[in-house]
Design brief:
Helix content: under 10%
Order of helices and strands: EEEEEEEEEEEEEEEEEHEEEE
Low-confidence stretches: none
Mean pLDDT: 93
Strand order of the largest sheet: 1-4-7-10-13-16-17
Structural class: mainly beta
Shape: globular
Strand content: 25-35%
Distance between the termini: 51 Å
């Protein structure tokens, strides 16, 4: 793919045909579909379902990671088109490429009449660059039977035509989405703080989502590590938060450039030798002199 010269509509995994009874889509990483053609305006789908699972024989989409869709076109990470009896458990979606685009980005998108859809224990992070509409979760049809809960639904910025969700209209905040859809009562909307997006490590470091999932019968994660049987983690990777160091180590702050700065110059702030973990936070302050006031 790095040397491809053209690309059309992309499907990472396509669940079409007549039926998807007992189909299991698990532990896949769908990444960098366009290769070097980052200017492509084609539509990109991660996992697309257009055929039904069965009642008691549901199609299962579990422990998948969808990331690095570095393109200019519309992106649908998880797409359900009138597909009954499909469950989505413990998936991680990262639509966080900084490349600017005016096209839409949707984490989970459902359209058409369907029932028996369950969406639980997933992490959806959408911070893609540009002005295109962004949604973590989007219900194109309101009369369907869908259960959504115990997810982390994060969109930034969530303003204008973008928001946590869409239900008849844009729902900017998680509270707006919960009120409009009556879904996700126990979900969160916080930055999952993945360890290393560019390096492909989607282990969260966010204490606010630790142990927030519910048992759904998925006993291992993307890396085949055992999941908690009582309080599994959301997303594809089971994780543990590093405890805080007490007392915390402040570390040494640096600014580059640190002198000879002209108006409009960008300054990079960094911190080294500091402790991390748990709910520990660092707040940058500024003052006219090294002695303050801050």
């Amino acid at each position: 793919r790095p040397t491809r010269t053209s690309i059309t509509t992309h499907y990472g995994i396509y669940g079409g045909g007549t039926t998807n009874i007992n189909l299991n889509v698990s532990k896949n990483r769908i990444t960098n579909p366009a290769g070097g053609i980052t200017t492509s305006t084609s539509t990109f789908y991660g996992i697309y379902f257009a055929a039904d699972g069965g009642a008691g024989q549901e199609a299962k989409v579990t422990n998948n990671i969808i990331d690095n869709f570095d393109v200019a076109g519309p992106i649908y990470a998880l797409y359900n088109s009138s597909a009954n009896n499909v469950v989505y458990y413990h998936n991680t979606v990262s639509l966080d490429n900084p490349t600017a685009s005016t096209n839409l980005s949707r984490g989970f998108y459902q359209t058409g009449t369907a029932s028996g859809i369950i969406f639980k224990n997933n992490i959806i992070s959408v911070t893609r660059g540009g002005t295109g509409a962004k949604h973590a979760i989007y219900f194109g049809t309101t009369a369907n039977t869908i259960v959504s809960n115990r997810n982390d639904l994060y969109v930034n910025p969530a303003t204008g035509t973008s928001g946590v969700g869409f239900y008849t209209t844009n729902q900017v905040t998680l509270a707006n989405w919960q009120t409009a859809s009556s879904q996700d009562a126990n979900s969160q909307s916080v930055d999952p703080q993945f360890v290393n997006i560019s390096g492909g490590d989607f282990t969260p470091q966010q204490a606010l989502i630790d142990d927030k999932g519910e048992p759904v019968g998925i006993t291992t994660d993307f890396l085949n590590a055992a999941r908690s049987l009582t309080t599994p983690d959301e997303g594809a990777i089971e994780f543990a938060i590093v405890p805080c160091t007490a007392p915390p180590v402040a570390g040494t702050s640096t600014a580059s450039p640190s002198s000879g700065i002209c108006l409009g110059t960008f300054i990079t702030l960094n911190l080294t030798g500091n402790s991390t973990g748990g709910f520990q936070k660092y707040i940058w302050q500024y003052g006219p002199t090294a002695a303050g006031p801050w």
